[in-house]
Each structure stands twice: as C-alpha cells, then as structure tokens.
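Record type: monomer structure entry
Structure origin: computed from sequence
Chain ID: A
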Amino acid sequence: MADEVVLLSFWPSPYGARVRIALAEKGINYEYKEEDLKNKSSLLLQMNPVHKKVPVLIHKGKPICESLIAVQYIDEVWNHTNPLLPSDPYQRAQARFWADYVDTKISELGKAARSKGEERKAGFKGLIEFLKLMEKELGEKSFFGGENLGFVDIALVTFYPWFKAYDTFVPLKIDDECPKYIAWAKRCLQKESVVNSLPDQHMVHEITKKNLGIE
C-alpha cells in the first residue's frame, strides 16, 4: 500500500533512482517525497539522523538508509516476484561485491570531476578502465544478473545519464571505448522500470556542465 511505503529522494540522485527501479521491478506502489537538500525536511532528519542523506526508504514507518541496502531490503521483503539477487549464496555474495565496487569507483570519479587539470583527466581515464572491467564481468550475458535485470545492473545503470553527460563535455569516447557497456545500457533502458526512474538527460547535462565549471 502506498501509505506503507515512502521514498525520500532528490530527483537527479542516481542513488534514489536505484530504489525507484527496484520498487518498479517489484510492482510496489509507494509515495514519493522530493527533498530540498539545501533545506532538508524534518522527516528526512528524523529518518536518517546519522548521514542526513537521501534516499531513505520508509516501510511501515521504519527507515532503511543507503541505496544498495534499500534495494536488498526490497528484494527480501517482496520476494514473490522478479528476484534481484541470486538465490545461490556464492552468486549473491559476488553480486554484492560488484555493486560495492561500483560505489567505490563512483566515489573516486566524483572526486576527480570536482578537481582540476591532471587529476580530473586521470579520474576520467579511470572511468574508462572501470567500465572496461565491468564489461569483462558482464561477459556474454544480457545483464549482470543473467537474462534478467538484477542487483548489479541496478547499481550501475543509474549512472549512465551522468557518464553520457561527462562524455559530451570531456569527451571520453565511451561509445568507441566501451561498446559492450553501451549495448548493455541500451538493453536496460528498454525496461520501463529503468527509463521511468532516470532523470531527464538534458537536465543532467546542465547539472554536469555546472559541476565541471563549464560556461
């Protein structure tokens, strides 16, 4: 029920988009509450007093913070359809490893994007290396989860609009350097749960342009 599930997020957030995709994959109705991160709501501060960040999933009045934890929670609670994590313990552990690796590399990229000169250049070179490694992990599968969208797919695909925006301004030549990644992203975007959860590409471009200090 919508009154039992609430998502606090900020529309451009790729982390919030992860939770939105997971909820859509499970067919869960929920109430969405947009947060102003410059003027955080009392509800957000109450539900995430430690980090005071979005997204926060609220289920029956109880908060679940951090996007990957929220996606795992959704998969465990609504386990009757569209499993996001493998049932095999080893494969499940591997999926968690790769999702955590995505977050580690994204954090490094964020620092590089906010820097200047050679540090920024090295950071974006690292992005291409990261995507090539993810291509190896994908192999010949349609999705990281196999034939269906899964945990690692959700962890990575929400950054696709941002990578494309960086590619416009830097450029990175992602299409040429990482064709398998691009093909995977396009498969993900064929799913309503994904395309309806991602922010508008034009708006992402504008934010990225500002973040990179480009007039």
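Annotation 1: The chain has two domains: 5-77, 89-211.
Annotation 2: Residues 5-77 form a domain with the Glutaredoxin fold (CATH 3.40.30.10).
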